[in-house]
Amino acid sequence: MTRTGAGLRGFRHELLLYRSAEDLLEFVVPLARDAVAEEEPTLLLLRDDTAQAVLRQVGPSPYLTVEPALAQPGRAADHVSAAGSLLPSYARVVHQEPVFEPSQWPEWRRLEAVLNLALRHHDTWAVCAYDRRTLTPDMVEDLYGTHPLVGRNGEYPRNDRYRHPVDFLVRHADDPPDPIERTPPEVELVDASPATARATVKWFSRQRLSEQKVDKLIFATHEAVLNALRHGRPPTVLRLWTRPGRVTVTVTDAGPGPTDSFADLSSAGSDDDLPSGPALGLWLIHQLVDVTRRLDHDGYTVCLTANHRGRNTS
Is residue 193 left, alpha or beta, with left meaning phi > 0 and alpha meaning psi from -120 to 50? Predict the structure, then answer.
């Protein structure tokens, strides 16, 4: 089934849920063979065993590029930027998605929603292949809500569970608190200046993280505190927790938070190259550390986490 044969052009964002290696190959091999026959440049981001199986069955072709799939989810904002520069080179892309920890999911589901707008001008068929065995029912529901098409039994029907990205992001605006927030913080500062916030993070992080990760967390905290002081409502409260190889910082102000649902991931909702104002600070933070955010009875909270290992490893 080619893109043209399917009667669809533009950005095709498709979900594939597979339950075994054989199940995945039954989808990818025909797609790759068809791409070669149609002379459509195709990128397959696959784990090594799957990649080798595809190459054995399809063979080499100038129209087929096979690269390693992501081992870790990475940051959502990075993927928006990377996808925007990558897609013009390919008519078809299949990505075998990594396995997610529950704490990584809120940011990732927002990425899947944002891609529908950020990449809407590209003429590419992009298939997100997830191992159904690694997903919770809530994760599956989120994936149906963010993919307009679902691959099933050799057909590619439209998905009636898909939601417009803005509607999806509004519905999922609040991420759950990090479990560490149920424990007493090592430090709590009220209305601290950005300079005090930077010094505090440096002091408590230097024995837990590499120098590069400390610097990233310092800058992210600076931006979060600056945003809260300039655009939020007092008081601004900074809390910090440490664990071996991990530091978590929350910045809370009494305001309602940003109104732009896309602010921290990309400029997908605007015609500008970069966001501005408070959105720029959020966008920068997402380039540096793992981020969640929520609005509750305390106000608006941004939670920043830097890990010695994991998806924000340098």
Answer: beta
Single-letter amino acid code for the residue at 65: T
CA-based nearest residue to 40, from 126, 128, 166, 109: 126
Gap between the Cα atoms of 144 and 130, Å rounded: 12
Residue whose tokens read 């989810």? 73
| 179-307 is classed CATH 3.40.50.720 | no
Average pLDDT, stretch 284-298? 85
Mean pLDDT over residues 127-139, rounded?
A: 96
Name the residue with tokens 């609005």: 295
Lookup: tokens for 291: 């981020």
> How far is residue 27's CA from residue 305's CA, in Å, rounded to a whole number?
37
For the domain 12-171, what is the CATH superfamily, name and number?
P-loop containing nucleotide triphosphate hydrolases (3.40.50.300)
pLDDT band at residue 271, thresholds of 50, 70 and 90?
very low
Same fold, 12-171 and 179-307: no
What pLDDT, on a 0 to 100 scale, did the predictor assign at position 152? 66
Burial of 89 (0-12, 13-18, 19+ CB in 10 A): exposed
The per-residue pLDDT of the chain, averaged, comes to 86
Angle at CA of residue 166, ends 161 and 167, nearest 5°: 45
Pure H helices in 163-232: 165-171, 194-205, 211-231
The two three-digit tokens of residue 199, written as one number: 């010094």
Smallest CA-to-CA distance from 311 within 285, 290, 292, 287 is with 290
Q: Where are the domains of the chain?
A: 12-171, 179-307
- CA distances 185 to 142, 192, 304, Å, are 32, 16, 14
Sheet holding 149-150: strands in order across?
64-68, 42-46, 92-96, 125-131, 12-18, 149-150
Say whether pTM exceeds 0.90. Answer: no
